[in-house]
Design brief:
Length: about 150
């Protein structure tokens, strides 16, 4: 009789553990499915861009580290150039080790990549025709290229 009671108690404990596991997995799946909805936010253009704090931190910490990274990447590119030429990926090595670190130095002070891209897209270029399709969407046509429009 004692063994039977132990077996029943064990069954109840495993059912409770299974229920707790099911609830935990369900809550995890719900939280994971909500993330894309929370990620889609509109940009407030009045409060868009770097703040004073991000500019100071970028000046004191970010830009010096980017300079060290760019110099170290250039040195690594020069050292790895014979091997990347043999491997046939010299262009990739140049892009990752040389071009991207120096391009990062040209980012506006305190800006994220998205903010920098936004500001650079707002610069007036007389050779580009901008057609706004929907407020965040636009079509850019470079007039240096041949554009053929047929009716």
């Amino acid at each position: 009789m004692t063994v039977k009671a132990k077996n029943q108690r064990t069954v109840k404990q495993s059912t409770v553990k299974q229920s707790v596991f099911t609830v935990a997995v369900s809550l995890g799946l719900m939280a994971a499915s909500m993330q894309p909805a929370l990620a889609a936010i509109e940009i407030d253009e009045a409060d868009f861009g770097p703040s004073y704090d991000t500019m100071v931190v970028d000046t004191v910490v970010g830009k010096p580290l980017q300079l060290v990274s760019a110099v170290a990447g250039t040195a690594a590119y020069i050292v790895s150039l014979p091997f990347s030429l043999i491997g046939g990926n010299a262009d990739q090595a140049q892009q990752k080790l040389f071009v991207e670190p120096w391009d990062a130095m040209g980012r506006c002070l305190g800006c994220t990549v998205a903010e920098d891209n936004y500001y650079k897209s707002q610069v007036v270029d007389n050779n580009v025709v901008r057609i706004v399709v929907d407020q965040p969407s636009e079509i850019l046509i470079n007039t240096n290229d041949y554009v053929v429009v047929t009716p």
